[in-house]
Amino acid sequence: MKSNTADRYPSELRELAIKVFLDNRDNYDSESSAIRVIASNIGCHSNTLRAWIRQYDRDINGDANTKFTTSERLRLQELERENRNLRRSNDILRQALSCIFQEEPNKCGEK
After folding, report:
1. Disulfide-capable partner of 28 in 18, 34, 41, 62 (CB 3.0 to 4.6 Å)?
2. pLDDT tens track for 45-94
């Protein structure tokens, strides 16, 4: 499931905002003030930009707190979707097999 910010802000804007932050953070008194100014200039909330920066940092440097990188998160979502589909298929096959080998055909929808 995509977050609202993924739909609201194009990836190019996110990448540009992160680049501007990384290139200019030393020109500000603090990281927070840099985030506030840059976020207001690009038209997003400072917490949104802060989250983008954190995710970028995880993607580049990893994280000891076992948070996933973007590519790992996407792969996990793909594997979870595949797992759901396989479980669903297995359930259908189990039901079909039980109908085939069942002595009472009425339980399988036959009249």
Report:
1. 34
2. 999 999 999 988 888 876 656 677 778 888 999 999 999 999 999 999 99
pTM across the whole model: 0.56
Q: Which CATH class, in words, describes the domain spanning 1-67?
A: mainly alpha
Q: Where are the domains of the chain?
A: 1-67, 68-111
Of 46, 51, 20, 19, the residue nearest 35 (C-alpha)? 46
**DSSP state letter for 65:** T
Measured CA to CA, the distance from residue 88 to residue 94 in angstroms comes to 10
Residues 6+ apart with CB under 8 A from 105: 99
Q: How high is the pLDDT of residue 66? A: 61
The residue-averaged pLDDT of 103-111 equals 59
b/e sequence 79-102, b meaning 16+ C-beta within 10 Å: eeeeeeeeeeeeeeeeeeeeeeee
